[in-house]
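Fig. S4 source data, part A: sequence.
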Amino acid sequence: LSPLIKAIGADLKFNIGPSSNNNIITEGISDYMYLQAMINYLEIDDPPNIIPSAGASNVNRIVSILIGWGCDFKILLDYDRAGYDEYKILINNLGISLKEKIIFIGSKSTIDIIPEEINGSRKTIENLIDDKDYEKLNNPYDAASSFKTIAAKEFL
């Protein structure tokens, strides 16, 4: 779309697609749904634009596009092996300056990341939801289940 948008005199960061300065990139659609549920619940007036990726390994592609379009963003990654692997790709391929834009679930900063711990640790957005809230769902979340996205949609 970029050449077409430019040809009509529009600017991608102001006319279509992501916000120019308030974007959060998530690993997947269920992360999007949980964040959107919290935004709705808290009635946030100027909510961020949440952009779900199709898995942790695709986050860097969305980041590349947003960098090219001049948009500001934060990146939300799970504190697990896939999240850490994507973190390394982002830092090594797109620049160390991305470090300040990356947030790991359950961690206050990327300085807290201990690579040896990640193998045995798994903190995801689903871990932030209380078990009592999951019990209210018709399709409760189960990490081993294929109903992960259905539970997130019902939660939303």
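Fig. S4 source data, part B ends here. Residues 63 and 142 are 30 Å apart (CA to CA).
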